[in-house]
From TrEMBL, chain A:
Keywords: Amino-acid transport, ATP-binding, Cell membrane, Membrane, Nucleotide-binding, Translocase, Transport. Belongs to the ABC transporter superfamily. It comes from the Bacteria. GO terms for molecular function: ATP binding; ATP hydrolysis activity. This is D-methionine transport system ATP-binding protein. The lineage of its organism: Bacteria, Bacillati, Bacillota, Clostridia, Peptostreptococcales. It holds the Pfam family ABC_tran. PANTHER family: AMINO ACID IMPORT ATP-BINDING PROTEIN, METHIONINE IMPORT ATP-BINDING PROTEIN METN. Residues 2-241 form the ABC transporter domain. Coiled coil: none annotated. PROSITE patterns: ABC_TRANSPORTER_1, ABC_TRANSPORTER_2. GO terms for biological process: amino acid transport. GO terms for cellular component: plasma membrane.
TrEMBL record, chain B:
It is a multi-pass membrane protein. Belongs to the binding-protein-dependent transport system permease family. CysTW subfamily. This is D-methionine transport system permease protein. Keywords: Cell membrane, Membrane, Transmembrane, Transmembrane helix, Transport. CDD domains: TM_PBP2. PANTHER family: ABC TRANSPORTER PERMEASE, D-METHIONINE TRANSPORT SYSTEM PERMEASE PROTEIN METI-RELATED.
Length: 354, 225
């Protein structure tokens, strides 16, 4: 378990001091795939560097498995760091060492003989799926392959925690997916705690079970991935979710003139549902039961941690009383309904709201 | 032989002296180069690791070393040569000949090596050093297993440039009685208007410089991946 207790850090430059971290408290449980998301400059890189003290917080404690590592001597800290693997955006492999020697680097001087080191390296390269490149040099590898080598190297000392600092940001979408799957695989196989720093909500959505959102050096929201996606509270979180779910152009869709139907009452709503409810055909049910027309303008359904979660933008038209009854029925079934527009008048000016 | 005698009679006459001068030059460069590297490389490493934001940041050490290196780098070699005569006498017991030339050469080349090594090591991606730190490497381990390994091509290249400069410096040292090819060219060639000696020594110096440079570049290529 990792406990970040009230961490603060300020960078002093010539005239201004920038608060990189402001009283950040986070708890990451063993076996978590924990995502920390934020735009650049939000302090997330500083935060992850505080976990292995590559950067020292000005105040606060970092406790890993009940050991306060901020209080350790340099020597014990180094010992502790062996149990915290880390991978980076630009891989940070040593160019003059081949794949084997890169992975063997952290194994030297740990009381292993040559044969044991070789066995271990080959086993690690097998785990990350790059055994055929054992004598290649980093310059001969693609980005995805380099990150696999970096993961093997990070796992060499059997760490309990793996820190990923924008580990997929320099990769193309295909390699991003492959590396994320590999991380998830390792997380399950080795029961490793994985902390992922990213600015891409897709990454979080793909693999994380918990997430913290950072803005201006503060953690503004944290929770399970399902909570955050289905019920984001802060503006920045809503933005991230909207970008990922494809809501960002909704306003245009809603405001399009051709949707106007002046002859009858019209109500445009956003319907969000989680879990069981997603599977049921609520829209056609209310359309039949209440005799109203339902025009689906937008829809998306995602699966998060095996739970389906989605939202629809629907424009109802017909008898206004019937429509409101239908909405009550939806709400009774734990479906969140938010009115965006009533008879052409915008009710919620933030269409990105979930 | 007859032909050689005709085109460059003086060179043939003084051939044994030319060979001794060549040997002196090579010896001067070799001895001063070795000692300058032995002192300059650790100095360069110290400059890198004590620099602000680096491994063993230490403003005081960096400042003092940096100033020290700059002073010796800024002085033109001819001035340095004469300015440190008391030190040369103290260390070598003499200020003339091979022994007398080696001391100022070391003083000139050491800061040169230090700065070259410093700039070569600064080229190393800080991310790689950060990765080594994250893996639990100690600063000393990082110097030996990361900086020196990753920076080796740069260091080799730095030493190549140093040797080339030393060949130039050694010719200057020759003019104040240090011996070697420079001394030979000035004394027998320039002062007696024996053009053939000037030409032959120039060609010899060019050859040596070229061989050193090519060797350095070959090594650089072999070491880089």
């Amino acid at each position: 378990m990792i406990l970040l207790d009230n961490l603060s850090k300020t960078y002093e430059s010539k005239k201004v001091s920038v608060g990189a971290l402001k009283n950040v408290t986070l708890k990451i449980e063993k076996g978590d795939m924990f995502g920390i998301i934020g735009y650049s400059g939000a302090g997330k890189s500083t935060l992850i560097r505080c976990i292995n003290l590559l950067e020292r917080p000005d105040s606060g404690k970092v406790v890993i498995n009940d050991i306060d590592i901020t209080a350790l001597s340099p020597k014990s800290l180094r010992k502790q760091r062996e149990k915290i693997g880390m991978i980076f955006q630009h891989f940070n492999l040593m160019n003059r060492r081949n794949v084997f020697d890169n992975v063997a680097y952290p194994l030297k001087g740990k009381g292993l003989n040559k044969v044991q080191i070789e066995e271990k390296v080959i086993k690690l390269l097998e785990l990350v799926g790059i055994k055929d490149k054992v004598y290649s040099y980093p310059s001969q590898l693609s980005g995805g392959q380099k990150q696999r080598v970096a993961i093997a190297r990070a796992l060499a000392n059997d760490p309990e925690v793996l820190l990923c600092d924008e580990a997929t940001s320099a990769l193309d979408p295909q390699n991003t997916r492959a590396i994320l799957n590999l991380l998830k695989d390792i997380n399950q196989k080795l029961n490793l705690t994985v902390v992922i720093i990213t600015h891409q909500m897709e990454v979080v959505k793909e693999v994380c079970n918990r997430v913290a959102v950072m803005e201006n050096g503060e953690v503004v929201e944290k929770g399970s991935i399902l909570d955050i996606f289905s019920n984001p509270k802060r503006g920045i979180t809503k933005e991230f979710v909207a970008n990922t779910m494809g809501y960002d152009n909704l306003e245009d869709v809603i405001n399009q003139g051709f949707l106007k139907n002046s002859s009858s009452y019209e109500l445009t709503v956003k319907i969000s549902f989680v879990g069981q409810a997603a599977g049921q055909a609520f829209i056609s049910k209310i359309s039949i039961d209440y005799g109203i027309l339902a025009n689906i303008l937008f829809g998306s359904i995602e699966s998060l941690q095996g739970v389906s979660f989605g939202s629809l933008i629907v424009s109802f038209s017909g008898n206004s009383a019937k429509i409101h009854e239908a909405i009550e029925f939806l709400e009774e079934n734990n479906i969140k309904v938010e009115v965006l527009k009533e008879n052409g008048i915008i009710k919620s000016n933030n269409a990105q709201c979930s | 032989m007859e032909l050689l005698n005709q085109i460059m009679p003086n060179v043939v006459d003084l051939f044994p002296d030319l060979m001794k001068a060549l040997k002196d030059t090579l010896l001067m460069v070799l001895i001063s180069g070795t000692i300058a590297s032995a002192i300059g490389i650790p100095l360069g490493i110290t400059l890198v690791v004590t620099r602000e934001g680096n491994l063993l940041e230490n403003k005081l050490i960096y400042f003092i070393l940096g100033k020290f290196v700059n002073v010796f780098r800024a002085l033109p070699f001819v001035i340095l040569l004469t300015a440190i005569i008391p030190i040369t006498r103290f260390i070598a017991g003499t200020t003339i000949g091979l022994k007398g030339a080696v001391v100022p050469l070391i003083f000139a080349a050491t800061p040169f090596v230090a700065r070259q090594v410093e700039s070569a090591l600064l080229e190393i991606d800080p991310g790689v050093i950060e990765a080594a730190k994250a893996m639990g490497s100690s600063p000393l381990e990082i110097i030996y297993r990361v900086l020196l390994i990753e920076g080796l091509p740069g260091i080799v290249y730095a030493l190549t440039i140093t040797i080339v400069s030393l060949i130039g410096f050694s010719a200057v040292a020759g003019t104040v009685g240090g011996g070697g090819l420079g001394d030979f060219a000035i004394r027998y060639g320039y002062q007696y208007f024996r053009t053939d000696i000037m030409i032959v020594t120039t060609i010899l110096l060019l050859l040596i410089v070229n061989i050193v440079q090519s060797l350095g570049e070959y090594l650089l290529k072999r070491l880089s991946h």
